[in-house]
Design goal:
The chain has 406 residues and is an alpha+beta fold. The protein has two domains: 2-49 and 256-404, no CATH class; 62-243, no CATH class. It contains 16 helices and twelve strands. The strands form two sheets. The protein has a six-stranded mixed beta barrel with strand order 2-3-8-5-7-6. A two-stranded antiparallel ribbon has the order 11-12. Strand 6 and strand 7 form a beta hairpin. The longest helix is centred in the N-terminal third of the chain and has 41 residues, at 14-54. The chain is elongated and about 100 Å long.
Length: 406
């Protein structure tokens, strides 16, 4: 009975109620959409980093992590790959040679990290081959040793397709090694910093220059069925290879976890600030309701409605008003997430700046279901807080005086 009465009371002044409802809806939609944008931004950075660089899990010789020297090797790499792939949560794995080097052309030079890869294996672990903008990914036969470089580094070195690049690196015996390569492919990812510092050659060519054996590697990269499985798989593999260091992407780049955590906290704090601001609007509306219905409330208390029922009536009115606005806001935000989550939002005008920070200019916003549940709980909590002052105002009314009020 009280719920029905409270619902009818909301619509006695439709304009005022609709203003409050739309204020709540717009506030929640804005908070949820901004949170979705930030989540999408960080999620893409994480996905891009895993796909093009760090993969889900990496395995190294402990010494390699200390100084990145190629002399710290993983032996019997083929056998270890077979052991790794026997895990049902592992989808693919590959091994690489890796070294810091100097990449030079006739006119310029730059520091770079050089990866010696087996292209057929690497394609299953990273997405570099999907980002080739010129040339190909070691697919065309070449008389010279082939190399694939990033577009940013190509501009820096003035190294177009077909140009020669000299790679200088320290071999396992401590001597400097010089090798001549020819650019056969240029790639471009969403992270211009990665493109500027990473080059790829065939493993046999780098191994020959550095003195690394065919069945030796500096790094093993692993993909799992899900990013969430990386930690558990890493623990299992660490037990299998106790003399090596096995790290999940969370350990390799902890900054990604920091960003994810910060964005989650940012979303909740933004929501709390907006709801806190809306509290005052709801309080003001309900106080106006109490003052306008002063005589009515006095009559209800005079004919026997006790203060407890008056309390619940005002509380239900406030909660229902807030929930209607919240439901409208959730429906709008869900629609926006569905539309833009599929089509994405293109920030092409800011592409250069975003890519310099490792972000994509195309953002696909999303919000977890837990966030929507939290929004609903916070709205109910906000309505309860907002109803306290108006309710106390109503309970302090003197029925005799209220009845005589104009």
């Amino acid at each position: 009975m009280l719920a029905k009465l409270s619902w009818r009371n909301i619509w006695r002044n439709k304009v005022r109620s609709l203003v409050v409802i739309f204020a709540i809806a717009v506030g929640l939609t804005g908070a949820i959409f901004i949170t979705g944008m930030m989540n999408g931004l960080v999620s893409q950075q994480t996905t891009n980093s895993i796909n093009s660089d760090i993969s889900d899990i990496q395995i190294h010789n402990p010494g390699f992590l200390e100084n990145n020297s190629p002399k710290f090797l993983i032996d019997d790499a083929d056998q270890k790959i077979k052991t790794i792939k026997s895990n049902t949560l592992v989808t693919e794995a590959c091994f690489r040679s890796k070294s810091t080097a100097m990449a030079s052309t006739a006119s310029k030079g730059a520091g770079a990290t050089i990866y010696g890869i087996i292209p057929s294996m690497e394609k299953k672990v990273t997405s570099i081959h999907e980002n080739i903008v010129q040339g190909d990914y070691f697919e065309t036969e070449s008389k010279s040793q082939p190399i694939v470089i990033g577009e940013k580094l190509a501009h820096k070195l003035n190294a177009d397709l077909g140009k020669k690049i000299v790679i200088t690196a320290q071999a396992l015996d401590g001597e400097m090694s010089w090798s001549l390569f020819r650019v056969v492919g240029i790639y471009k990812t969403n992270d211009s910093r990665f493109d500027e510092t990473n080059v790829f050659v065939q493993k046999e060519d780098l191994d020959k220059a550095l003195g690394i054996g065919n069945d030796q590697a500096n790094e093993i990269a692993i993909r799992t069925t899900s990013q969430n499985n990386a930690v558990s798989v890493a623990k299992t593999l660490q037990t299998a290879f106790p003399k090596l260091i096995v790290q999940s992407w969370r350990e390799i780049q902890p900054s990604l976890i920091v960003m994810i955590t910060m964005m989650n906290q940012f979303g909740y704090w933004l929501l709390i600030i907006i709801l806190f601001a809306l509290i005052f609007g709801i309080i003001n509306t309900m106080l106006m309701v109490i003052m306008e219905r002063k005589r009515e409330l006095g009559m209800l208390m005079s004919v026997g409605m006790n203060k407890r029922r008056v309390f619940w009536m005002i509380m239900l009115e406030t909660t229902m008003l807030s929930l209607v606005g919240a439901i409208l806001g959730l429906v709008i935000s869900l629609t926006l997430m569905q539309v833009f989550g599929n089509t994405g939002i293109n920030f092409a005008s800011w592409a250069q700046g975003l890519e310099s920070l490792g972000y994509s200019s195309f953002i696909y916003p999303y919000v977890s279901s837990d966030f929507y549940i939290t929004v609903t709980i916070l709205v109910i909590f906000t309505a309860i807080i907002a109803s306290i002052w108006p309710t106390r105002k109503a309970l302090k009314l003197n029925p005799a005086e209220a009845v005589r009020a104009a």
